[in-house]
Design a protein that fits this description.
Elements lengths: L1 E6 L4 H14 L3 E6 L13 H10 L5 E4 L5 H6 L5 E4 L26 H11 L28 H11 L10 E5 L9 H7 L5 E5 L2 H6 L2 H8 L3 E2 L7 H6 L2 E4 L4 H4 L20 E4 L5 H4 L18 E3 L7 H11 L5 H13 L6 H10 L1
Parallel strand pairs: 1-2, 1-3, 3-4, 5-6, 5-8, 6-7, 8-9, 9-10
Length: 360
């Protein structure tokens, strides 16, 4: 069989890499095509160069792996494909895990029993021009599997090496992973980095790094470090002691982290404490990017400490300090969220099971 793995945006590559590796392990041919965007939300559909490269790559191809829609233009461009497979790149708390456009794929892997119950009633029908509904292999979230690693000490060493610090640096690591949305300021990074007894690593959303590159240097001027948004977030999550997020899907991905960074502790899911900055209420609908009725929102009260966007100075530091001293306080609830939203079908071999389900 032949697969085409298509990254509409640069960060989609880490969403596809597990499935790509699994297809190659199974002896299938895989051609990777990456769109070179002209701006931070250039989704390729008008790019003649990308279309030409896709058409060349798809000669003789059976499957196309994609991290997100739009699928209709892909199907029109590549009519000989057997199936377009949607890996759904986002778990972001704005409802887009279940956006209507997702149902235009031919195969949509489901992450968990909860996901299955949410997905099939919405998407279990034929898309326009099709005579049959998508299929829903219960193979889990393939791109989440690196976070299931139990080698948190190894991840911490790799993370510190990535930012140029010694592996044995004893300071706690605070990861700040935020979206590109306007209510997330750099104040949290500035406040946290003011204490030299903390290592603060900011992972910007890819679009933010593209749109506001000056912020990268600004963050470094605070004494914080910048993680690469084009790398898989697993190393950042596994190597950190606390995560500060907002509505980024990384907050939900973090619920899969096991145990503690202490090499003597390997525990259940929910091992990474989380602080969440809620969006400014005025931005919820004005931005056009948030849907607080989305299923992901019902989990926010169970993940960690929530702070308002318009918070007082010192609140973020206080929340992080609390979780550094008592990281287990939310673990049980976080573990339930991880199992419910992502974990039931998601196992270390999810990508291999997906490729087997597609090709058998």
């Amino acid at each position: 069989m032949k697969f085409v793995a298509f990254s509409q945006l640069p960060f989609h590559r880490w969403c596809l890499e597990q499935a790509v590796a699994a297809a190659r392990r199974a002896g299938h041919e895989v051609v990777e095509v990456g769109h070179r965007p002209g701006h931070h939300h250039d989704w390729w559909t008008g790019a003649e160069d990308t279309k030409a490269r896709l058409q060349r790559a798809a000669v003789g191809a059976d499957y196309l792996l994609a991290a997100d829609y739009p699928f209709a233009p892909l199907r029109a461009l590549l009519p000989s494909l057997t199936e377009i497979v949607s890996l759904r790149h986002s778990l972001a708390s704005r409802g887009n895990t279940y956006e209507p456009e997702q149902f235009e794929a031919d195969a949509i892997p489901v992450f968990s029993e909860y996901d299955e119950r949410r997905l099939i009633p919405v998407f279990g029908r034929a898309y326009p021009g099709s005579t049959s509904p998508p299929r829903f292999p219960a193979t889990g979230c393939s791109w989440a599997t690196p976070v299931l690693s139990t080698d948190r000490p190894g991840a911490r060493a790799a993370l510190l090496d990535r930012v140029g610090l010694r592996h044995d640096d004893p300071r706690p690591v605070v990861a700040v992973a935020t979206t590109w949305n306007p209510w997330t300021s750099l104040d949290a990074v500035r406040e946290l980095a003011a204490d030299p007894e903390r290592i603060v690593i900011w992972r910007p959303h890819w679009a933010a790094a593209w749109r506001r590159p000056g912020e990268l240097d600004e963050v470094r001027s605070f004494g914080a470090f910048v993680d690469d948004p084009l790398e898989h977030p697993a190393t950042l999550l596994l190597g950190s002691d606390v995560l500060v997020g907002d509505v980024s899907g990384i907050v939900l991905l973090a619920t899969l982290v096991r145990g503690a960074a202490d090499p003597t502790v390997v525990g259940p899911l929910g091992g990474l404490p989380v602080v969440m900055i809620d969006p400014d209420p005025s931005a919820l609908f004005d931005s056009g990017q948030l849907d607080p009725t989305g299923p992901e929102w019902e989990f926010r009260d169970r993940i960690g400490i929530r702070l308002p966007a318009r918070r007082a100075v010192g609140e973020i530091v206080g929340a992080v300090t609390t979780l550094l001293s008592d990281g287990d306080s939310w673990r049980g609830l976080r573990a339930i969220v991880g199992e419910t939203m992502i974990g039931t079908y998601t196992t270390p071999d999810s990508a291999d099971r997906l490729i087997e389900a597609l090709t058998r």
